[in-house]
Design goal:
The complex is a heterodimer of chains A (284) and B (255). By secondary structure, chain A is of the alpha/beta class. Chain A contains 7 helices and 12 strands. Classes of the chains: A alpha/beta (284), B alpha/beta (255).
């Protein structure tokens, strides 16, 4: 560990600010708390919000896993993991069950997270009303009034035109029956994992300077008409390496125009290939 | 009809834009199942008056409407969080359909929007109620999925009427709904309005500069001139025997 920076890179005042804002976010599930997002040695939009949360929480006893679309070895994931390890002395892992803190972009791991684990999600656009209400001020007012009818109008239009919701990622969810939240661009497959989850989910948007949270055992319900229930995307193929079709798969286009599939959660895939028994999955 | 209590009543409405007085103390009533026509030239303040009635504009004066829970309250003194509750009971049909409709969304979506706002969360029920309203408005149902931007002006106005009907409001406000339509489309549109009024017993306020439009649907007429009511009475009475010089001019100028 180099001592040229404060512990965990951020100065103590910043870390305290973020922790306080996180407490507020946990106290008001789904509510977007503004915070003074700092310059990070990483471009905004590349996970600076989640990185600041991770850095303000992590200690030398922690074990960190960083994934990007399920992969532990993408450039961004590797960089963030190495950076946090250097700055904090925390151990790193690719095993979901071993990790105490998991920073993730666009996926929730397939193996069920348990109490005490913290999932930190990177969020590009924290405002679920952004595409239906261009004014930020008005959007905040709608949150305050609990008026989400604009999202329902949008949902109706989708069903009318396509017979389903076109929202493939970042499907809006109602948290604890009060605030509608953008769950970050996770696929619909991962949405049910948030409902009454035993782990703590923290979401950070560095560019937009917002953080919010889903505390353990909180209701997370996707917006859907009662007679048009929310559905996860169908699994269209089988993993080319394990033959599995019970978890979320990445589509990999081939040169001859075919599409092959592979398990998206790399940590889980490696366990299957090595023959290590994985932890329990979320109930489908 | 007149012995009934009015469902809508305004008293002494004043509105100023800078030092120009747009409305100088306008009072009027609307009775249940009645169509009130407001006529006036450009700049007479008729559109401003309608915007005030729809609570889009602030003004001095008193405005009462039989909204459950707000009977006897002056609606012009409400705070802005109570206004949406009142607007639920009012429907507005604009001259320019893009102000009332989502031009890029399916027409049916625009029609059911007020129902979603009211809290309906069953998809099939929304579709059924939306189609029913469109049918009442004589809108060709096979086009319910087309966005208004692909429709003709006359069809757009029918979508607006359907949206108003779906809302089941106390009062429908119409702001020059036929201006810009050609004469034939205008005639069939007004015919639909008349049929609806007869079948559903709607209460409407219709604003127009065109006496022939007003004459076709209105029971009573109010003539606005430079921000004041200069004449008021049963439609036939006003048209047959206009008292005020401006009304006389209007009636005389009619083709």
């Amino acid at each position: 560990m180099r001592r040229r920076y404060s512990y965990a890179y951020l100065d103590p005042v910043t870390k305290r600010e973020i922790r306080r804002k996180l407490l507020k976010a946990v106290a008001i599930p789904g509510y977007q708390v503004p915070f003074a997002s700092r310059e990070m040695p990483l471009a905004r939009g590349w996970g600076t919000g989640a990185l600041q949360i991770t850095l303000s929480l992590i200690g030398p006893e922690d074990t960190l896993k960083v994934i990007d679309q399920g992969a532990d070895d993408s450039v961004n994931a590797v960089n963030i993991r190495r950076f946090v390890a250097q700055m904090t002395g925390a151990k790193t892992t690719t095993d979901t069950l071993e990790a105490t803190v998991i920073q993730s972009r666009h996926r929730i791991p397939e193996e069920r997270l348990r109490e005490g684990q913290v999932l930190v999600l990177q969020v590009p656009i924290p405002e679920p009303l952004r595409y239906v209400e261009p004014s930020e001020a008005r959007a905040r007012e709608l949150h305050a009034l609990g008026d989400y009818s604009l999202l329902w109008v949008d949902l109706f239009e989708d069903h009318l035109r396509r017979g389903l919701s076109r929202m493939g990622a970042a499907y809006p969810v109602l948290v604890h029956g009060r605030y509608v939240m953008d769950p970050s661009p996770i696929p619909r497959w991962d949405i049910p994992k948030m409902h009454m989850a035993p782990h703590l989910t923290l979401l950070g948007a560095g560019r937009e300077k917002r953080l919010y949270a889903v505390p353990p055992y909180t209701r997370v319900e996707p917006l859907a008409f009662a007679d048009r229930p929310f559905t996860r995307e169908p699994i269209l193929g089988r993993c080319r390496r394990t033959g599995a079709n019970h978890v979320f798969l990445n589509a990999i286009p081939q040169e001859d125009g075919r599409v092959e599939y592979e398990i998206s959660d790399q940590g889980y895939l490696e366990k299957l290939i090595k023959g290590v028994a994985p932890g329990p999955l979320y109930e489908g | 009809m007149l012995e009934e209590r009015p469902i809508l009543q305004v008293r002494g409405i004043r509105k100023r834009f800078g030092d120009r007085h747009a409305l100088k103390g306008v009072s009027l009533e609307l009775y249940p199942q009645e169509v009130l026509g407001i006529v006036g030239g450009s700049g007479s303040g008729k559109t401003t008056l309608l915007r005030i009635l729809h609570l889009e504009e602030e003004a001095e004066g008193e405005y009462f409407l039989n909204v459950p829970g707000l009977e006897g309250r002056n609606l012009l003194a409400l705070d802005r969080y109570q206004v949406p509750e009142v607007r639920r009971w009012l429907a507005m049909v604009y001259q320019d359909p893009s102000r009332g409709l989502r031009m890029d969304f399916a027409s049916l979506t625009s029609v059911v929007e007020p129902l979603i706002l009211k809290g309906e969360r069953l998809y099939e029920a929304l579709v059924a109620q939306g189609l029913e309203a469109l049918e009442l408005a004589d809108f060709p149902l096979e086009r319910a999925g087309s966005p208004p931007k692909e429709l003709s002006q006359g069809q757009r106005q029918r979508v607006q009427i359907a949206k108003a009907l779906a809302k089941k409001p106390l009062v429908i406000l119409l702001d020059e709904p036929t201006t810009g339509l050609d004469l034939l489309v205008q005639a069939t549109f007004l015919d639909t309005l008349r049929t609806l009024k007869r079948r559903l017993g709607l209460s409407m306020i219709l604003v127009s500069h065109d006496l022939s439009v007003i004459r076709m649907v209105a029971d009573r007429i109010v003539v606005l001139y430079e921000g004041e009511v200069v004449e008021e009475g049963l439609a036939d009475q006003v048209l047959e025997d206009p008292q005020h010089p401006f009304t006389q001019e209007l009636v005389g100028a009619k083709l």
